[in-house]
Write a structure and sequence with these properties.
The protein is an alpha+beta fold. The chain is built from 26 helices and 49 strands.
């Protein structure tokens, strides 16, 4: 319960609420708790109806002029208690004519379609809450007030008789008659009497009951054929009770209001600038609480064989685009990689810059493609008398299909199209590929890395193609969109934090770690605009790829720094955006790239491509291990260091002499808690791999690696869905998802754009402003806790300040941040993100809003409709999901209309569903994504056949608690569930009491296991060769095997041999001789393989981090702080631990490890001083 003086808990456990308010409504539950456990009552619901209020207008109609033949809406909206009914008259209170062209919208507006001359005149809007027409099953209030002396007594009758003896009828203390759950027999006339000794006054009201009726189409859509470049209207209307809401889907994705689509109040769908990409099946969906109906049609788009205005500019534009894009990218690369990051923007760009060459080339091609179209548009605009500014430009009239295909070829789009070969069925039946391909054998690219995000709703761009909402001064529903920074400072940033009374900070940390297994958007490759190469932060214009976050007037950050904007660049587009065919015959709306696999497959540990996986594997030892870094005093290794040029972790040599760690995801160094989690899971792989090798010494390194990877991925799935997700979604959300029903190959597991860009960023509201660091007694370590902004890109603090254990204890030993609608993101994230001296820090909340607009994410209201919530026409319509009136008032001041609210801030403002940490719309979006991830993954750990029943039983023993016990530096005391807050000391137990996985269920049971478990041997006669660009080195075996094939002498792998006997009804001696010959050759090959393995195992040398060979027993200095030694083929490194400096800004002397104070440094530099040097 929140801290509120109106809420009083009495001694007998009764909850008393004084002065009830709208914010008090919700679900309540009584819980009794002691050391032995807890017990809960059933849930009860408190509903708030409010005091009766006379109707008042929120929106009043305005004088309007309209051309004959057009359509118009006269807006009118009223509020009151009960909610008033709106009606219209024309002229001298004449009822409106019975005309199908004239309808009253759900919000109260008057819509007139195809206006004619006779429609002109004076219209009046009325709002009344006396006589009421109410839907069956709802609650109705009839207020009645009277004054006089003596004070009159109020009495209610129905049809001249007393009220029925029914508990649904209640006369409140205010004399209001309330009838709950109204039914058809409640219809009739009710009379309120005010009686006193002086006399009696009566007034009557009429109650009408609306019967519930399922939707019925009155005008269903029909198939249409239209030429490219035209606009088309598709009619649809329906009736029902309540009046059904109409939505449209195209090819299974819901259509939203944008520069491409317009949905009229009566349900017509208008498609603007139709292109080939707009052809397909459209569905009109009529839905009300009783049910829904669907009517579909097919839109066929024909492309006339004529030249277009922009065809003559293709050649010059593509050349200019290649030149300007490449120049901007090269300038950015020099600025980022030739020195240290100088600003938070550069730090962010360096942090997000793609490392994989294939990713860079794909993003480059996408930028060239869009820049070419922009240049062609500019050339065409120069010949026009009106500047279209890109919002009304018709892109399907710009360039003919033939030249679109030319642009796709010359930009590099078609050169980087991926073709995948899943014919190696035996491998793909057993193990995942690193890039996610061939998980779904019917749709090999579903869920793969470097593919476009999926969408629940069609994208919303102001020009229907790529222009974000808010990129110019265009009005949206009559209002300008607020600046993202203004939204952040007005309602998101908070200095006040409410601790979570149930869950620890580990709840947040697992969410971030999981997110880095699911999605990572490819950022723009340039920090400079393509048009002239100027830095985005210097010009502050919306010029690709720049999309800066402007400061509102009087922003204190602007006043301190003098900057006009905050750094922000757009995400890279998918090459050709949504194109799926080989020929580019239409302009597709901009889509963004997910560079990770969408599956929960531990790709944040193992990487998302062959290149990444080989970089982090220890291929030299052939023991299936991941590379390890320096060994701590506890005897456990840290992650290896990343090689290459100076990175974001070395932005200040005096503070951070340690480079970034290398992991499966490049964001592992973003903050210390995340780095600790990466360290734990890298150790978990090596622990599992080591145990598998002990149990199966005949397995080769590739088999051990893939089996350990499979186990680690299954543990992450189990922890996420059985331990973490139920705490986020609560009982209601998990019930909505339902139990696992098996693999469904028709489910696309691709990450939804709204999930990655807004919904899953709800974890930002769970972040504490401080990372706590606790010792074995759960007390602060000598170096103390650390502010979040000082924990970014600081791996040196793990090396020099106690390892990962203090951070882990600070995650599971400290309460997390509670989600409160008035306390969204702490100011460490909104005011000091990646802060540097004399530079403008970033604002995570503003960036989230801006990123949503960049990605064409539809407004919040469209997702409400998708999730079967009401379409909010007024801010009062949000009262059930956003109960705090102050929050709704802030939204109204910022956005003007609910139709404009960005998705991220609205999701964060929703009140939590009881028992969860999310609101209703956010629960819908998260549940949709996580159900897809489970149902569409062929390697889901519970899918029969992925693991044996005995192995699955063991995997269900997995817990994050056990992983921390096994892989922390020295974690010995922990609670059973590290996501739940525990009290010291009785809430913590020994790690010995935590269940663990018995890996003996993976042991081979065979008499002669020497050939079993060899990744390239007889039992693996399945390794077909995949395409060169999308296969892995260890997977590249022969495509086919012929009988009696000789064994290769020079390769690492042995050609597989299939032993068969010739079909004959009379076996001859020759058959037996052939069999013996085959067997002898097989034995010879196996002996040679054993000799090679023995020779490899007898090797005693090591390889250092620079691939130089070191002899057994050799010691060397890796850097000034690190000493390494080769022992039995294993490199062990030790790091000198530096004591805390006694000054605020110590310096680091050349050749020394530990920083010293400036006074001491000056002494050491003097000639003749001890230890002095030049």
């Amino acid at each position: 319960m929140r801290d509120d003086s109106r809420l009083n808990l009495l001694e007998d456990g009764t909850l008393m609420i004084q002065d009830t308010r709208e914010t008090d409504q919700g679900v309540y539950q009584c819980m009794a708790k002691n050391v032995a456990g807890e017990v809960k009552t059933s849930q009860v619901t408190l509903r708030y109806f409010g005091a009766p209020l006379r109707p008042s207008f929120v929106i009043q109609p305005q004088n309007t002029e309209v051309l004959v033949g057009e359509s118009v809406t006269l807006e009118c909206s009223a509020t009151g208690q009960p909610h008033p009914r709106v009606s219209w008259t024309k002229g001298d209170r004449t009822p409106l004519p019975n005309d199908a062209r004239i309808t009253i919208t759900p919000s109260g507006g008057l819509y007139i379609q195809n206006v004619d001359q006779a429609d002109g005149g004076q219209y009046t809007c009325f709002a009344s809450n006396n006589d009421q027409s109410i839907l069956e099953g709802h609650t109705v209030d009839f207020p009645c007030e009277a004054s006089g002396y003596p004070k009159p007594v109020i009495a209610w009758t129905r049809g001249g008789s007393p009220l029925p003896l029914d508990r649904r009828y209640v006369v409140l203390a205010s004399s209001t008659l309330r009838i709950t759950r109204v039914a058809a027999h409640d219809e009739g006339q009710y009379e309120c009497q005010a009686v006193s000794p002086v006399g009696t006054v009566r007034t009557n009201v009429q109650l009408s009951i609306q019967q519930r009726v399922t939707p019925v189409f009155t005008n269903a859509p029909r198939d249409l054929t239209v030429e490219s470049g035209q606009d088309v209207q598709i009619p649809c209307s329906a009736q029902g009770q309540p009046q059904p809401a109409l939505t449209w889907n195209k090819d299974g994705v819901q259509v939203t209001e944008s520069g491409k689509f317009h949905i009229s109040p009566e349900g017509y769908l208008e498609v603007r600038d139709v292109g080939s990409a707009d052809g397909g099946r459209y569905e009109c969906v009529a839905r009300n609480p009783i049910g829904y109906q669907v009517a579909s049609m097919v839109l066929t788009v024909t492309v006339p064989a004529i030249s277009r205005q922009g065809d003559t500019f293709v050649s010059t534009s593509i050349e200019q685009a290649i030149r300007t894009v490449d120049s901007a990218i090269e300038s950015t690369r020099r600025r980022l990689f030739d020195g240290q990051p100088r600003t938070p923007g550069e730090l962010l760009a360096l942090f997000r810059y793609p490392r994989d060459p294939y990713t860079v080339e794909q993003a480059r091609a996408g930028e060239i493609f869009e820049q070419t179209l922009l240049l062609i548009q500019n050339h065409v605009n120069q010949g026009l008398t009106v500047d279209t500014n890109g919002t009304a430009f018709r892109y399907n009239d710009l360039v003919s299909p033939h030249f679109l295909d030319v642009i796709a070829n010359l930009s590099g789009c078609t050169a980087h199209r991926r073709f995948n070969n899943c014919s190696d069925i035996c491998f793909h039946q057993k193990y995942r590929s690193h890039d996610g391909t061939c998980n779904n054998l019917q749709h090999p690219m579903w869920g793969a890395s470097l593919t476009a995000f999926e969408r629940l709703l069609k994208s919303v761009y102001d020009n229907g193609f790529n222009l974000p909402r808010g990129a110019n001064e265009q009005l949206h529903n009559g209002y300008r969109l607020p600046l993202p920074r203004l939204v952040s400072t007005s309602m998101i940033g908070t200095e006040t934090i409410t601790p979570d009374d149930r869950y620890t900070h580990m709840l947040m940390q697992w969410g971030q770690f999981l997110d880095h297994d699911l999605d990572s958007t490819v950022a723009a490759l340039s920090q400079s605009r393509f048009s002239d190469g100027q830095l985005c932060t210097q010009v502050c214009t919306n010029d690709p790829p720049c999309f800066p976050i402007h400061f509102p007037p009087n922003d204190p950050r602007q006043q301190r720094s003098g900057a006009r904007c905050m750094f922000f660049v757009r995400s890279s587009p998918v090459c050709g955006s949504g194109m799926t065919s080989l020929l580019m015959n239409s302009v597709y709306p901009r889509e963004q790239i997910n560079q990770l696999t969408s599956y929960i497959d531990a790709s944040n540990v193992y990487g998302n491509s062959r290149h990444e996986s080989e970089e982090i594997r220890d291929l030299a030892s052939q023991r299936g291990l991941l590379r390890q870094g320096i060994i701590q005093r506890t005897g456990k290794p840290l992650l290896p260091f990343a090689a290459g040029p100076p990175t974001e972790c070395m932005r200040d040599e005096n503070e951070s002499p340690i480079p970034c760690f290398l992991a499966g995801d490049h964001r592992a160094n973003e903050q210390l808690g995340l780095t600790a989690m990466h360290t734990v899971w890298f150790r978990e792989h090596n622990r599992v791999a080591t145990e598998l090798l002990r149990l199966n010494p005949h397995w080769d390194g590739d088999t051990i690696y893939h089996e350990a990877r499979k186990i680690v991925g299954a543990q992450m799935q189990h922890i996420t869905y059985r331990h973490w997700l139920p705490k986020i979604l609560g009982e209601a959300g998990m019930k909505w998802m339902g139990p696992y029903a098996g693999y469904n190959p028709n489910v696309n597991t691709g990450i939804l754009n709204a999930f990655a860009t807004a919904a899953f960023r709800f974890g930002h509201t769970l972040i504490n402003p401080i990372l706590y660091r606790l010792d074995e007694d759960f007390q602060p370590i000598p170096q103390g806790h650390i502010s979040l902004h000082r924990a970014f890109f600081s791996p040196f603090r793990i090396v020099n300040e106690g390892g990962i254990d203090p951070l882990l204890r600070g995650l599971f030993g400290v309460a997390g941040k509670m989600r409160v609608s008035t306390q969204m993101l702490n100011t460490e994230l909104t005011e000091r993100l990646f802060s540097m001296v004399h530079a403008v820090a970033l604002d995570l909340a503003a960036m989230n809003i801006q990123r949503g607009r960049d990605h064409g994410i539809p407004p919040y209201n469209d997702y409400r409709v998708f999730c079967n919530l009401t379409s909010a026409q007024t801010f009062d319509d949000l009262r059930n999901e956003i109960k705090n009136p102050n929050v709704r008032e802030k939204l109204q001041r910022l956005y003007g209309t609910p139709l404009n609210i960005d998705l991220f801030p609205a999701l964060m403002a929703e009140d939590l569903v009881p028992g969860s940490r999310v609101g209703p719309t956010l629960m819908c979006l998260l549940g949709t994504q996580f159900k897809r991830l489970q149902d569409g993954d062929r390697f889901w750990y519970e899918n029969p056949g992925v693991f044996s029943p005995a192995q699955l039983t063991q995997l269900k023993q997995a817990s994050l608690t056990r992983v921390l016990c096994d892989n922390g530096d020295n974690i010995t005391r922990v609670q059973q569930d590290v996501f739940k807050v525990a009290e010291l000391p009785h809430g913590y137990g020994s790690c010995d009491d935590v269940p663990q996985i018995d890996l003996r269920m993976w042991q081979d049971c065979c008499e002669d296991c020497r050939t079993k478990g060899q990744f390239n041997a007889l039992s693996y006669h399945f390794r077909g060769r995949r395409s060169a660009e999308h296969s892995y080195k260890e997977e590249g075996l022969a495509n086919s095997v012929q009988e009696s094939s000789p064994v290769k002498e020079d390769g690492q792998s042995i050609v597989n041999v299939t032993l068969t006997s010739k079909k004959s009804t009379e076996p001859s001696i020759n058959d037996f001789q052939d069999f013996v010959s085959d067997m002898q050759k097989t034995i010879t090959g196996l002996r040679k393989q054993i000799k090679r393995l023995e020779a490899r195992l007898s090797k005693t040398a090591c390889s250092d981090s620079e691939a130089r060979e070191r002899t057994d027993g050799e010691r060397w200095k890796q850097d000034s702080c690190t000493t390494c030694e080769c022992t039995d083929t294993q490199v062990t490194c030790f790091v000198e631990s530096c004591p805390p400096a006694e000054c605020k800004r110590p310096v680091k002397l050349k050749g020394s490890c530990c920083p010293v104070c400036r006074e001491q440094a000056d002494v050491e530099k003097q000639p003749g001083a001890d230890g002095g040097h030049e």
